Structure formats: structure tokens, C-alpha cells
Amino acid sequence: MAVGTAAVGSADLARRVEERMAQLPAVQMTAMQAMATFLWRPLAVMGMLVLVSGAIIAGVNSFRVDEFFGLAAPDVGARSTFQSMQAWLPGYQFMGMGFMFAAITMVVASILGRLRILGGTVQGSLGARIIYPPFPLSARIFPLLMLFGLIIFLTQLGLSAWLATEAKAGDMQTVTTHADWVQGMRFVGVGVMLTGIALALFTITGLMRFLAGRIREVAAEAIEVDS
Amino acid sequence: MTVSLSSGRGDPMAQLEGLERELGRRPALPLIALGLTGFGLILLVVLTIIAGVAYADNWGAGGDAARSAATFKPWFRMALLTAMGIMLTGIITMLLAIIARIWWVTTSNRMFFPVIVDARRGAEGRAPRFVRRRADDKGGA
What we know:
The structure holds two protein chains of two kinds.
Chain A lengths: L1 H22 L7 H32 L13 H50 L11 H32 L3 H55 L1
Helix pairs in contact in A: 2-3, 3-4, 3-5, 4-5
Chain B lengths: L11 H13 L4 H27 L2 H4 L1 H61 L10 H4 L4
Helix pairs in contact in B: 2-4
């Protein structure tokens, strides 16, 4: 019987909470956060597809090594195909990493949106005016850094394709000349993406700090009204 | 379960004032994390520029220039990976800062929510539910 009473009490409590929640002002994400909540999935899927297909292509390409390596009369055509793949495959895989980093940035933006809703809901449920911090500079910069990082990854993919055509044509000197700085460019792309993620996380710490301070303000206001 | 401001150590008002002081202080951990990430990014950009400007053409030059480019290659790659490591350390530091911030938000909510609820109950003429007066702790004196 006690369980039944508790169940009825629980249902009654749930109904009362729902009624109370329905009276609270609606709090929503910003347009960018709502878009990020949707977009991270296709980006992550694309990234996974590129990375997995790149790994399969790399595995298949590695078997071509015995077509020319160590042979007295190597097959020049097979070697140039192998070297061509060696030139574009890293660029392709870094593009996949770029999609994954973009998806991570979107997820962090989505977390920011959730924090916005939760912070607003908590303030509203306490009967306080819903206040958000001024839109921080870091929140403006990190989506731009993500886009900039994607542009860098697309550019290095184009350069890798160009180097692959040079390798196919047998001009390995050009490939060797440009391989180092293109490699550096790929890592700069990763660095820009990571900086964007760090800024997004920094925005989260700032928002949480603001919300903790806001609860203190609501408490101070409540005590003043009480006294 | 009731939560009491005075259940912890020390004066509850002193706890509140301490919390206010802490809230007003800018935490250093997120800034350190941003510094590490920024330093790693600058290192990556500088290394890439060096590779492009100083060494790219040397491969075709032959002789000492080509040897110099060949010497550059191994430490260049290691330096790139080191810069990546610095950036990832920055990200981990930022995640640690968020963990600290979650603890902080939880602590402030635990301290302030009972105060807010009791203040509202007091305004409605009802007895406080969560926060016991210090006098109550001393046996109602």
C-alpha cells in the first residue's frame, strides 16, 4: 500500500511539476546553436567515411609496394601510381580529421546551447528575471576558426591532388620540394581547429561562472525581499 | 532530506562571503589553457613558414643546400608533433577547468538554492524548510 501511495504521490508531483514548468517562459538556443545541434551528425558521418575509406585505400596501396620495390626491373607505372597515392592520401585523411574536428566543435556549441536553456530554466523556476551574459568574443570567434580550419583542409586537399598528378608524371623533385610545407599546413589546419575547440570550451567555463554568480544574485535578492 | 547552511564547518555567513569573494576572482586555469593552445598554434604556423620559405627550394639546389633541407626534415616533423602535443595539453587543461567549474556550480547551487526557497517560504509566511537558524543549532536559545 505504501508503494501505491508513493506511486500516486509521485504521479501527482510529476503533474504539478509539469504544470509549473509549462508556466515558465520558453528559453531557446540561438540560431547558431540550434544549427550546430543538427549539423554535427552529418559532419561526423562524413569524417568517419573519409577516414575509414582512407585507411582501406592505404592498406590496398601498401600491397603495391611489392610490385616494384626490390625488383631488378621495377614497373615504373606501378611505382608512379604508388607515389601518387602517397602524395594525396595524407591530404584526404586530414580532410576526414577536419570533418571530425568540425563535428566536435558543433557538439561543444550544442552543449553551450543546452547550458543556455538550463540556465534560463533554472532562473525562471526560481522566479527570477532571466539574464544571460553579454555575448562573449570567444563565442563569436570559434565558429569562424572552425570555418577557417575547414578552408585550410580543403586547400591542402587541392594541393595534395596537384602533388599527386606531379608524382604520377614522375616529377618527384616537385613533390619533395613542397611536401614539407604542405605537411606543416595540414598541422596548422588541425591547430586552428583545436584553437576553435579551446575557445568554445573557454566560453563554457565563462557561462558556467556567470550562472553560478547569477544564482548568488538571486539568493541575495530573495533574502532582501524576505527581510 | 534537509540541507543546512550551518551543517558545514564555520560560520554560514562567512561561507557565503567566502563564496562571493571566490566568484569575484577570475580563475587562472582557462587562461593558462588558452595560452598553451595559442602557443602551440603559433609554433605550428612559424614552423610551416620556415619549411616553406627557407627549405622548400633547397631540395632542388643540390649540394649543401639539399643536405641542409634533409637535416631539417626529421626535427621539423618532431617539432610539428611537439606543437600538437602542446595544443592538446591546452585542451586537456581546459577540460580540467570545466571539471572545476562544474564542481563550483554544484557547490554554489547547493548553498544558495535552500536560501532562495526558504526566503520565498518566509515571504509567504511559512516556516523555513532548509536553512536552520544558528540559534536553532544551539538548541533554540
